[in-house]
Specification:
Rossmann fold; 10% strand
């Protein structure tokens, strides 16, 4: 199959790309992550992915617009369920690009992280596939997370410490916020 792989970053691309290629799939990446904040973080993730892609003969389509405002419009006043809106926004666009590029299916590297909401990603991926008319290719890539982490470290790849959104960055650093709210927005 010809699969469009939504990619959030270089390190998370390693295992899904290996696994899909081992299954004889033709894989093309798609970088579209308006949730990543600040812009310098978005740039680091994009540049790291493109470096890995260049070294591994992996074509990547890059959505160059940094649409932070679009992301914020989607999640404002929905902070407690922000991941649902974030996943939907990115996977819907990936499905549209997959349809336009005549891909057989689309998937996402988000399925490799044990820190993401795996079941929600799969559910939204299927829904976006149905909405747009391109099947969502589901595979649980989490078993390869540790291996990919080690590979990314051995390659000295930039590794981020939060999912990318401004809220997760706050959660990472603001211990007082976590203590007062249990990590949930007020």
């Amino acid at each position: 199959m010809k699969i469009l792989l939504h990619t959030c970053c270089g390190p998370c691309t390693i295992y899904p790309l290996q696994k899909l290629r081992a299954g004889s799939h033709e894989v093309c990446g798609y970088f579209n992550n308006p949730n990543i904040h600040p812009y310098t973080e978005w740039r680091k993730r994009k540049d790291t992915l493109l470096g890995y892609a260049r070294d591994n003969d992996f074509k990547v389509i890059v959505h160059e617009a940094y649409d932070l405002e679009g992301y914020l419009r989607e999640v404002v006043h929905r902070e407690s369920v922000r991941c649902q809106y974030c996943y939907t926004m990115r996977l819907r666009q990936a499905a549209k690009i997959a349809r336009r590029g005549k891909f057989d299916a689309f998937s996402t590297t988000l399925l490799v992280s044990p820190f993401q909401k795996h079941d929600l990603i799969a559910e939204i991926g299927r829904a976006m596939g149905k909405e747009v008319g391109v099947p969502f290719y589901y595979e649980d890539f989490r078993p390869g997370y540790r291996e990919a982490t080690e590979i990314s470290r051995s390659l000295s790849m930039y590794r981020q410490q939060y999912c990318g959104c401004i809220y997760s960055e706050r959660d990472r650093y603001d211990k007082e916020f976590k203590t007062k709210t249990g990590g949930e927005p007020a």
